[in-house]
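Researcher: We plan to redesign the surface later, but first we want a full-length starting point. Tokens attached.
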């Protein structure tokens, strides 16, 4: 039976009246010994105990804390009680006469004979009436919310694990190392804006001193784009095996355009396809909507491999074509994706083609790795710390 002083306190204290009558939280009041003196209806619902059952019990015993109940001991007498946030907040409120805001308590409780894991948000309010110290404990059961959060976090962990695996698969499709070739020097850089992306490129040595190089940029980012890059890579490898004797960059683009319509994959992709001939010292190339590769000549001049058509997947609205240009010792060809020229700084300015062309011309004669690294550094410096919004890929090949 509740003491008269507490009943009078509740009648006189409008705060407590409002608290008990209107809050959706479980509320209980403890005295100077941390014994429960009154609870509201939400408390009875959450902890499945009536006020008559818990009146006079110590806090942990009243709310069904697993530690004192399984040990058959009083709350406050166990080692676990020393680190209990609820009991600690109550003791602090009584000794220092202060209140504390919500703390998250995750613990097992024995409720209606069953062990149940709960997540509770607990706040304590110190009050005084007629020189008696009391603490109002306000409890919000957020178990459902926290459980959903944990499920989401676990799903996110699994997604991140899958992304790491996907990134590993995608990286395995890139050149494993720069080939040691008698006629060419190679270098490349790949920086996806997230763990996996829509850029892919490779170098494939053919017969008769020829090397085939391609770069692809699939629309979109993440796993959907990465899956398309895997499919494209497999198809290119198959095409090369079947056309060793009469390989043509133009015919490869036509084949891919027929087999990768946008309505089938819900994506399109740009591509540049280069066939380097070390004997005849030339490049035969074809492009589909891709930024024109830069051809840095030994004398410092620059030209663009600008022959091109619409992206693959657009139904060939612009006919594909092929061109051949000389590729002499000292010349360097640089392929890249639009993650370079469209990189934007904090002023919403794009890095752009002009900056790229000027940087490349200043670096003519550099080895491919130095060329790529210098351009990448310049792009990053230009960004002023802004994160990339697209994948960045560069591939440089220099004729010996």
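Model: Full-length starting sequence:
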């Amino acid at each position: 039976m509740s003491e008269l002083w507490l009943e009078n306190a509740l009648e006189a204290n409008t705060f407590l009246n409002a608290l008990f009558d209107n809050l959706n939280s479980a509320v209980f009041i403890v005295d100077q010994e941390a014994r429960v003196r009154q609870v509201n209806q939400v408390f009875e619902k959450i902890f499945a105990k009536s006020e008559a059952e818990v009146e006079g019990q110590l806090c942990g015993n009243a709310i069904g804390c697993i530690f004192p109940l399984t040990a058959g001991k009083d709350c406050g007498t166990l080692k676990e009680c020393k680190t209990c946030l609820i009991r600690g907040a109550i003791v602090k409120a009584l000794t220092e006469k202060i209140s504390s805001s919500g703390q998250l308590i995750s613990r097992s409780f024995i409720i209606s004979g069953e062990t149940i894991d709960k997540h509770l948000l607990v706040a304590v309010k110190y009050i005084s009436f007629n020189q008696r110290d009391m603490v109002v404990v306000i409890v919000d059961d957020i178990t459902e919310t926290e459980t959903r959060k944990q499920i989401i976090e676990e799903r996110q962990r699994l997604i991140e694990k899958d992304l790491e695996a996907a990134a590993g698969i995608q990286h395995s499709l890139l050149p494993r190392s720069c080939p040691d070739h008698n006629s060419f020097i190679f270098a490349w850089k790949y920086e996806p804006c997230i763990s996996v992306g829509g850029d892919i490129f490779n170098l494939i040595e053919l017969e008769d001193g020829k090397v085939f190089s391609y770069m692809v940029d699939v629309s979109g980012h993440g796993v959907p784009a990465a899956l398309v890059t895997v499919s494209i890579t497999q198809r290119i490898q198959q095409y090369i095996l079947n056309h060793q004797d009469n390989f043509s960059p133009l015919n490869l683009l036509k084949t891919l355009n027929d087999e990768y319509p946008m309505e089938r994959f819900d994506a399109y992709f740009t591509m540049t396809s280069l066939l380097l001939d070390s004997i005849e010292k030339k490049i035969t190339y074809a492009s589909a909507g891709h930024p024109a590769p830069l051809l840095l000549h030994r004398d410092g001049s620059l030209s663009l491999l600008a022959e091109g058509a619409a992206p693959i997947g657009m139904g060939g609205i612009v006919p594909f074509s092929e061109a051949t240009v000389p590729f002499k010792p000292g010349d360097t060809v640089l392929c890249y994706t639009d993650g370079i020229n469209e990189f934007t700084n904090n002023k919403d300015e794009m890095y752009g083609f002009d900056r790229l062309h000027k940087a490349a011309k200043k670096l003519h004669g550099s080895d491919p790795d130095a060329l790529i690294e210098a351009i990448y550094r310049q792009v990053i410096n230009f960004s002023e710390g802004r994160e990339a919004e697209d994948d960045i890929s560069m591939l440089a090949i220099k004729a010996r």
